[in-house]
Structure formats: C-alpha cells, structure tokens
Design a protein that fits this description.
mainly alpha; 10 helices; 64% helix; 172 residues
C-alpha cells in the first residue's frame, strides 16, 4: 500500500512518533517492511493486527516472538535454563504440543521474573518480554522492547520478515 495509507493506519493503532516519522522515508509499506531494522516495532504492529488471544493468528505471533527471545539467551547467565524453559513452554503452547495451558506459560514466565533473568543484561529483557507476550497472548506484543542492541533488533526484524513476509496482508 502507499506509505501515506500505511501511516494513517499505524497512527490509528497508536504507533509511536518515531515509527511514524521513520515511515515517511519510504514509498510503500512493503518497502518499509523489507528494510525495517526494528524487530520490536514489527512485533508491536503484528500484535495489534493478530486477532484475539489464543487464536491461531496469535499463536503464530507467539512463535515468532519466541524466536526473537531466543536471541537473548546468551545474556541470561546462570538463569539461562529458566529463560529457555519459559520460551520452550510458550512455543509448545503455541504449537499445540503436549497439554500445555496458558496457565503453564504464565507460571514459566513468572519463574523467569523470579529468577531475575530479565536483569542479566539489557537483551535478556527480550526473553521475559516475549514470554510475557506469549503467556498473555493478548494485548499488544512488547517482545524485544528495551531488548537492546541494534544488532539484536535487526536480527529480530529478519526473523519477523521470515514469518511475516507481506505486511499488507496483515491489514486484511
């Protein structure tokens, strides 16, 4: 879609001013999507457009957010196992593996929080944020916010683009 149409749509969704301003550099939404280096912005937008909690569309987003969260595991230090278990639990829930309930995912996310994994390094916040978004499986996805480095955000953007290659289809 033309960038002005896209900008109007993301403004209605409550996009931050920085994202709106950045969009003005592009001619189309797909051009922006293809070049975006902010995985957190991309996940936020998908979260706004991915439907109700516990739906298949939302579960797809949880899987993508978990892939991004895995980028934070090297920074989780001694709490890496707790964070990894949390992400795995969210992935299993989203993939309908086992009898994982949303309550199980919440408990795993709470264990990450209790272990202070989120404070191990700036990027470790991504693991908690993605898991939190996964267990909430509702509201806006805040995975990768405050997550970090430009490198990590670019890696997340690449992950998001792999799972969601066509931005315009999300608005349908």
């Amino acid at each position: 879609m033309k960038i002005n149409d896209y900008i109007l749509k993301i403004k209605k969704l409550g996009a931050c001013e920085e994202a709106v301003l950045a969009a003005h550099r592009y001619k189309t939404s797909q051009e922006l999507w293809n070049e975006c280096e902010r995985g957190d912005w991309m996940l936020w937008l998908i979260g706004k457009l991915s439907g109700e909690p516990k739906t298949e569309k939302r579960k797809k987003l949880v899987i993508t957010a978990c892939k991004c969260a895995r980028l934070a595991l090297p920074y989780a230090g001694k709490n890496k196992n707790v964070a990894e278990k949390c992400i795995g639990t969210a992935e299993n829930w989203a993939n309908n593996i086992g009898n994982i309930t949303i309550g199980d995912v919440r408990a795993a996310a709470n264990a990450v929080y209790a272990a202070n994994t989120v404070y191990a390094a700036d990027t470790a916040y991504a693991a908690y944020a993605a898991a939190n978004a996964a267990y909430a499986a509702a509201n806006t996805v805040y995975a990768v916010y405050a997550a970090a480095t430009i490198k990590t955000l670019k890696q997340c953007a690449d992950i998001v683009r792999t799972d969601y290659p066509d931005i315009d289809s999300l608005f349908k």
